[in-house]
Amino acid sequence: MQTDVLIVGGGLSGLALADHLARQGRDFLLVEAQDRLGGRILTKEMSGGAFDLGPAWFWPGQPRMAALAERFQIPVFEQFSAGDLVYQEQSGAVQRGRGYASMEGSYRLAGGIGSVVHALAKVSDPAKIMTNARLTSVAHSAGKITAQVDQDSSAQTIKANRIVMAIPPRVIADTVSFDPALDAAQMQALQNVPTWMAGQAKILAVYDQPYWRNAGLSGDAMSQRGPMVEIHDASPRQGGPYALFGFVGVPADARAQHRDEVMRLAVAQLTAMFGPEMADPMHLVLQDWATIPNIARPRDRQPVRSHPRYGLPANLRALSAQGMIFASTETAPEFGGFLEGALEAAEHAASTLALNEPMRA
């Protein structure tokens, strides 16, 4: 199998890069290890509503996301924030009106963030996309890439002029071998980049009525008791069903071992904080990103507590001369870790490819 540019990763960055290349008339092939596109973007439909189990927001001052929504005519709406915030002390005592809606002013997309993935996939040539296809090795020299991909337990060899790895650096370090091998400092640089969101888990609870809104609450909540430490309204732009989601504060190993108990305690927490009507959700879902090896690696099981300083490590930049470009959101210098960062990384990769036309093998 032969292509000009091999894109590894079918998340937002990989799909955006594929879109750039398609509009430039360049040949490419995209491979994705999971059985779906989107990467860390995951929007699920439940009872007629679309709910984000991965990233849910973007912000003013993030022009690439705004432009993408405008291009595909996806309605943008502000995060619901009207009403009081709820605060739960470690003792379980609940207070109203303490604090502020932390996501006020952020934007969401009608149909969820997955609507962007769907739109980009729809304008892509399906013949240029392979799912269930995991990159295992890369032989590299200037203008010549030979990649081994495991698709449905069958080995595939793909020859390309350039390879763009739009997957988290730690996934690359742990799962891809290189010939010639990367040096120890380069491997360490890959390992040192935390995968944004990979250690997180979200619980989503869906209801037929917005009971919290009816009680004058915004749905925003903070808790020192848990298991959810931060809660937000996750309802669709218009109509129902309605939902709250919460970031789980229980460590990854503990929540994996005590999943049922975590879910039981989550419902008890929602009931205590928002009222007895919350005791019987229509749907209750736990999305644990730490359990997905194509996204989270062992070092990611402890979630980062503040936003890392992202950007491509300096000692990895020279590998572009060997035909290897890195383009996950973690490599974006300005918006690393955000959806906007994925688009920034794709934009930078497209510019690098355009400036350095590959030698033909």
Written account of the structure:
- Belongs to the flavin monoamine oxidase family.
- This is FAD-dependent oxidoreductase.
- GO terms for molecular function: oxidoreductase activity.
- Residues 12-84, 91-352 form the Amine oxidase domain.
- The protein is α/β, with parallel strands linked by helices and 361 residues long.
- The protein folds into 2 domains: 1-41 and 113-195 and 306-361, FAD/NAD(P)-binding domain (3-Layer(bba) Sandwich), CATH 3.50.50.60; 43-60 and 77-110 and 199-294, Polyamine Oxidase, Chain A, domain 2 (Alpha-Beta Complex), CATH 3.90.660.
- It contains 10 helices and 19 strands.
- The chain has helices at residues 12-24, 63-71, 114-122, 169-175, 184-191, 211-214, 252-257, 259-274, 314-317, 339-355; strands at residues 2-8, 28-31, 43-46, 49-52, 76-78, 84-88, 94-96, 107-109, 129-130, 133-141, 144-151, 154-165, 177-179, 201-207, 217-223, 228-233, 242-248, 283-288, 324-326.
- The strands form 4 sheets. Strands 1, 2, 9, 10, 11, 12, 13 and 19 form an 8-stranded mixed beta sheet that branches.
- Strand 11 (144-151) and strand 12 form a beta hairpin.
- The longest helix has 17 residues, at 339-355.
- The mean pLDDT is 95.
